[in-house]
Amino acid sequence: MMRIRIVKADITAVDVDAIVNAANESLLGGEGVDGAIHRAAGPELLEECRRLGGCPTGEARMTRGYNLPARWVIHTVGPVWQGGGHGEDELLGQCYRNSLGLAAEKGIESIAFPAISTGVYGFPKERATRIALAETLRFLESSALPREAVFVCFSAGDFGVYQTALDAALGG
Ligand code: ADP
Questions:
Q1: Could you give the C-alpha distances from 51 to 5, 27, 75, 86, 109, in angstroms and in order?
Q2: pLDDT tens-digit readout, 99-129
């Protein structure tokens, strides 16, 4: 049974139990997917985020989804790319593991991820995609929840990168 799906979409419109936000450590909103999620969820999301008091890089926190189709938002903070020698791979892996762990703990059946750190934070796309898929495949092997993980690509180019990386991950 295939528990991973790749789609080209705006994550704010994806109908799953939880969407993941590529947030920053303040959790107070930002550019890119973070801004889009806050706009779509409405001001109550920012209010709940304020009460969380931030989140260190690599960790994850959960809030309600308010006006989003998704009932929950899992906020995780990806690493800023600094050339690859500053623990970026490990920190990005932690984002996926901690988001999936939180989802499993809360009984979440379906979760959707954006391409964490690959926008403003500058993480190379192919490398980030390999980490995202490897961590998720490994997690799902040993956990019944979440039942399904959806990778949401914002561009046709990203969709191709994910398809190629998934074929490679499954093939060898
Ligand atoms: P980061 O700061 O972690 O790099 P960004 O939001 O800048 O986060 O980018 C992360 C990824 O999210 C990029 O691939 C970007 O194209 C994508 N993205 C931006 N807006 C959306 C959206 N509405 N839905 C899904 N993905 C999005």
A1: 33, 10, 13, 30, 26
A2: 999 999 999 999 999 999 999 999 999 999 9
Tokens of 129: 């995609």
Which of 10, 91, 154 to mutate for ligand 1's pocket (most ligand atoms within 8 Å of CB)? 154
| Given 34, 89, 158, 167, the catalytic residue | 34
What is the overall mean pLDDT for the chain?
97
User: In which residue are the tokens 């391409």 written?
Assistant: 115
Q: Which domains does the chain have, with CATH numbers?
A: 4-169 (3.40.220.10)
**DSSP codes of every residue in 139-159:** HHHT-S-SSEEEEEESSHHHH
Ligand 1 atom closest to the Cα of residue 24 is 2
Amino acid at 118: T
Q: pLDDT tens across 14-54, in order? A: 999 999 999 999 999 999 999 999 999 999 999 999 999 99
Residue nearest to atom 21 of ligand 1 (CA): 33
pTM, rounded to two decimals: 0.98
Residue of minimum CA distance from atom 27 in ligand 1 = 33
Please give the single-letter amino acid code of residue 170: L
